[in-house]
Design a protein that fits this description.
Length: 639
């Protein structure tokens, strides 16, 4: 099937052909046959690099009205926006801003790119452009099974189908165990394929040999290791060197940020692909110890990538790798989540990661996502993915990851915090005003599809009682309504638990002496909420943070003896202290050094604090209270 045979304008056909896209890949042709270019609903469960983006574009370009492209991450939203913006004659908008804005101007675009949280927020705030949508494409729909993000995605899709009954839905997924369940839920045709434009072989390294799943072997020369050398690291270095020396690029995945940086430093010793100019460019993005380490590694053709990097550095690493200026990226598994960075070889050194309680195996789907980055279309004749093991683990790694299917996608909607959030949203948005009404709305969720025998009204009843106790819902007989506080909590897109904590803080502030209400007070309130990212509290810091909390106890809304659990509150105090010092002029480098926090962590917490302080100010208005410190600190966070 040829592009020029599709119902596209001459300008679009010319655009695709000039970019080397003339013939459709088999999964793309199957999607056309399933009706993706004629308004049909389609779930495409196909490997990375098999043409999912073109399937999405085809649906959106042939839709009878505006289209929405939903992504899981803001970084991916920017990447897709830039891709779609190159389409001739197509107006593209992006929505990643404030959660409490309806952004009516988005209705002027042919395509809008947004995260599922931003779409959910737009629905809550009555955005009129939502009702005019003709097509919605969901990228990475398998994230329905992710805690936190999954329930928001399924409620968003359920609500969109209710508001726009004739909506075309196109869902793009990695290969998972139960794509037919997702397709059945969405009333869509399933296009399932293992076809790839570049063949992929996956194997396990042990004893200087990689055994692949296609019955081939690869001998790897690993120099003798000394007593202080890590054998898995040295094997990884040898596998990376081999790929680069034969003209390929390599992604090396490890379990943690520290390991990513350490492996990059080790590979930098090999001077694999000198790139001094790139190091200079990275230096210009700003100076932190982490940034300088990155630029020094980049001079040798090696980069690292993790959430602790500043966003500008992460984007620069991704772009440099795509432009083939970097030979290697050492990364945590988050890099595999959608961002387009294909390589000839992927090496997965670590297959376990620390989850807070113990070391646990990485899910099969996550490993398959990493492996799927191997093989650069139009650049590589093949792709290779290698899991680093040893003689004792080789067979287990084969069984667990190489020959195993990815896990099934199961709804996480019954999580208590998710239920509280979405029950409040449904009532506050006017979609339902009774237990049965809420249950009816939730009957369209993926959870209800998977659990048809569950009594949704009974499931919701306990949550309604909790929300009533939180003063976020009113219950009068069988009628439910959001209180002023509940409506504002939902509109500000904070969780009910966060809303209740902020309200409690505001009321405590009203009882405090004026001289004790400071910037620290405002920050302690918003940092001690589940919507603020946790900040690691090391053993050596506990005593220092305890003393800091004691010396500023009069400024905090939680008494130290009432903090429960105390450790979580002390962690919140640390985050508040970092943000307070930021508002007083400390730069990122000082904070990183002082508090063992990544520069990207500082950025993300500043951003979160701005959002939560704005929500706190709005909740003050709902309480007919005024705490100017919320506004003042928010203004200082991003002068």
């Amino acid at each position: 099937m040829r592009v020029r045979d599709l119902p596209l304008s001459a300008a679009l056909v010319s655009h695709y052909e000039s970019n080397g896209i003339e013939e459709l890949y088999p999964p793309q042709a199957a999607a056309v046959e399933a009706g993706v270019a004629a308004g049909g609903r389609v779930v495409a469960a196909i490997p990375t690099a098999s043409g999912k983006t073109f399937i999405a574009e085809l649906a959106m370009l042939t839709a009878d009205g505006p289209a929405l492209y939903i992504v899981p991450l803001r970084a991916l939203a920017r990447e897709k926006y830039e891709t779609f913006d190159q389409l001739p004659g197509v107006s593209v908008g992006i929505s990643t801003g404030d959660f409490d804005a309806a952004e009516e101007e988005l209705g002027d675009h042919d395509i809008v790119v947004a995260t599922s949280e931003k779409v959910d927020s737009a629905i809550r705030n009555g955005a009129p452009w939502v009702d005019r949508l003709a097509c919605v494409v969901v990228d990475e729909v398998h994230l329905l099974g992710a805690p936190g993000r999954g329930p928001t995605l399924e409620v968003t899709l359920s609500t969109l189908q209710r508001r726009v009954p004739d909506l075309q839905l196109v869902a793009l997924s990695a290969t998972v165990d139960n794509p037919e369940a997702i397709a059945d839920w969405l009333d869509a045709e399933l296009v399932e394929s293992t076809w790839r434009p570049v063949s992929l072989r996956t194997g396990v390294y042990a004893d200087e040999t990689v055994e692949f799943d296609d019955d081939t072997d690869l001998d790897v020369v690993v120099p003798p290791t000394g007593p202080n050398d890590d054998e898995a690291t040295e094997a990884t270095v040898a596998l990376v060197e081999d790929a680069v020396e034969t003209g390929g690029q390599c992604l090396a995945f490890v379990r943690s940020r520290r390991e990513a940086e350490a492996l990059a430093d080790r590979l930098a010793d090999e001077d694999l692909s000198p790139a001094p100019a790139l190091g200079d460019e990275l230096d210009e993005l700003g100076g932190t110890a982490t940034g300088r380490q990155l630029s020094e590694c980049a001079r040798t053709g090696v980069g690292f990538h993790h959430a602790g990097l500043r966003s500008a550095h992460r984007v620069a690493v991704e772009n440099a790798f795509r432009d083939r200026r970097l030979a290697v990226i050492c990364a945590t598994p988050t890099l595999a989540a959608g961002v387009n960075v294909p390589a000839r070889r992927v090496v997965i050194r670590d297959q376990k990661r620390y989850t807070g309680d113990a070391m646990e195996w990485i899910p099969v789907l996550d490993v398959h996502q990493m492996c799927g980055r191997a093989g650069r279309p139009h650049l590589d004749p093949f792709g290779e993915a290698v899991l680093v093991g040893d003689a004792d683990t080789k067979a287990e790694l084969f069984d667990r990851y190489v020959t195993a299917d990815a896990e099934a996608v199961d709804s996480q909607f019954a999580d208590p915090e998710a239920l509280r959030t979405h029950v409040l949203s449904v009532v506050a948005s006017g979609f339902a005003d009774s237990l049965d009404g809420v249950a009816d709305v939730f009957s369209a969720t993926y959870y209800a599809h998977q659990h048809p025998d569950v009594d949704l009204a009974a499931l919701v009843a306990d949550v309604v009682s909790e929300l009533e106790t939180m003063e976020l819902l009113d219950v009068t007989g069988e009628t439910l309504s959001a209180t002023t506080l509940g409506a504002q909590t939902s509109r500000q897109y904070v969780s009910p638990t966060t809303g209740a904590r902020i309200v409690s803080g505001i009321r405590t502030i009203a009882e405090m002496a004026d001289e004790h209400v400071t910037a620290r007070t405002a920050l302690e309130v918003v940092c001690d909420t589940p919507d603020m990212h946790d900040t690691y509290l090391g053993n050596r810091e506990r005593a220092l943070m305890y003393q800091y909390a004691r010396s500023h106890a009069a400024e905090f809304t939680t008494a130290m003896h009432d903090a429960d659990p105390f450790e979580e509150w002390l962690t919140a105090v640390k985050t508040a202290r970092i943000l307070h010092e930021w508002t007083e002029g400390s730069d990122i480098e000082e904070l990183v050094e002082r508090y063992r926090i990544g520069p990207g962590d500082v950025e993300s917490r500043v951003e979160r604090a701005e959002w939560l302080l704005g929500a706190a100010d709005a909740l003050c208005a709902a309480l007919d209270a005024d705490v100017p410190e919320f506004r003042e600190v928010r203004a200082l966070l991003s002068p």
